[in-house]
Amino acid sequence: MTSYLYEKDLVPQKYRILVANRHDALVRGIARELDIPVQELRKYLIEHLDMMLLENLPARAEMADAHADRDDPLARALGREKYTLYLKILPDVTMEHIFREVSDRVHAGSATEDALAYGRVRILEELRR
Amino acid sequence: MTILQRIKNKVRARSIHVAYVDVGSCNGCDIEVLACLAPRYDIEQYGIFVHNNPREADVLLVIGAYTPGWEEKLAMVWEKIPDPKAAVAIGNCPISGCVFNRRETFIDPPVRKHIPIAAEVPGCPPRPTEILQAILSVRDSVFANWEAEHP
Amino acid sequence: MKRTVDVNIPLGPIHPCFKEPARLKCEAKGERIVSAEVELGYMKKGIERIMKGRPWQEVMFLAERVCGICSVIHNMVFIEAMEQISGISVPPRAANLRVIANELDRMQSHLLANFSYCYTIEHETLGMYLLDLREQVMDELERLTGARVTCAYIIPGGVRCDILPENAELLQASLDRIERDLRRYAGMFADGPMIALRSRGVGILTPEAAQRAHAVGPTARASGITIDCRVNHPTYQKLGFVPVSRTDCDNYARIMVRFDEVAQSISLIRKSLQDLPAGIIRGGGICKAGETRYSGEAPRGELTYFIKSDEFGRILEIQIQTPSIMNIEACCHEMIIGVDSIADVTSTFVSSDPCIACTER
User: Fold this and answer.
1) A6 lies in some domain
2) Identity of the residue in B40, B67, B98 whose CB atom sits nearest the CB atom of C42
């Protein structure tokens, strides 16, 4: 995000977008999945995404549910493409890194659930950084 | 009035530049303003030129019901327009807020609270001919004897 | 994220090429655009908040005023959603009249979009021709519904007024004239060498990117994705509707898709005038409680209403997903990236037919 000296604070307007019915449901869903407080996720979204993308989040999430990572169940469960290509919450490189760690764990013999839980904790760490 | 002033008045009234600014409408009035450009209504035959640049405008068409995004920005646009200038409110929205002026809304009408309005055209949306007539009436009342009033 | 940026160019909110206020922040390397952001907030009226708790009779007029350019389809989708909730059936004559009003609205919207594009690439002659053609369509819309914009023609269980036989004849004659002119102007656009320089290969939207951003309408159909909600609509199915699409993915394709769709709308109107069944235009009915998701094809693409109503026909919850949300998003985050000059930014932005009033509601 680029900040301008002569621009007024856009946070209230972005917040208004995020509390509309469908946006609210989506944000709460992601917050549940990643186990992050809703208000913290909202703050992250407001700081990192522009208004147009915020408006479009539900439509993008819908497309992610239909098309993201269709041939890789592990990546789909972690939301590899969902969080990078579709929702643009995380940068590609970071997500690729996390996904490699998770799939290494699965190959090393740990349970898929545990590996995914670890992956979500890593995503959360990235979000909080 | 000197002859020079008379010429100035005449020239001013024959070449009006228009800028329009949408401060939160439904778009219906915007397209009616655009329709004024069409060969049928032909706004340019009256010497009115629509170019959306406030710095060289004479008349500002204000469309819409004043949303929070325009706080201080509309006043800035108004200040950028050189004298003589006039603002015309198009449609019901800048006058009363139209259907949007209800509970839970974000808008803050009327626009004349924020900048001085010279003429108002009610309608949801007004017809292009009415918009044209309003601009022409402003021309006659503001620009045609500007020199006499502001020596 | 750290980025190497040469210049940072904010466009808008007031810009000679934009009909409506939006703020485009482009980050450029030389003159090539690296990334772009759109900031809104100049048109946020809170229509969905106003709609909550109001009876459908009021919401109907508010729905129309979500967007003034495509007001007929907002009216139609809201009313058909209420009809779906309440199980109201539409008389066949009214269904055909709805198609006529909707297609006339689509024609004027597409012609306006193409005018805006021609105006932005400084081809004012063609722009004025198209605007003049649009006035003829507006005349027909006014003759049919009684108003140019926001006509509130469609009501639950039918339409507001019938088409008179002499008006039907006038409409036929007018369509012939419009089709003749349209063919000429579309040919001018298709063959213009200067237009091709400004439009071909500019603002590429790949099918994958279009799908990710959920692009809809002519923007998606110019990228080879044939989604069109009209194929699911019973009246359009009866008229044998087949969506048009192109695979060039650039500005030129988007404008040509709109030209093709105007021609298609003309034939749809002709067909529905021909098969116009006799009978009543208002069936009546009572709006009831229920919840639904209903989509219709607006001029800009798929328009979806999520509605929940109570037993008196009051709207409890409503969310409107307008096509411009997806299209502008696809435009500013996918199309504009890599465009070669700032002049092409405005023309690319306008080619996606942005409607900020829809987007912000």
Assistant:
1) no
2) B67
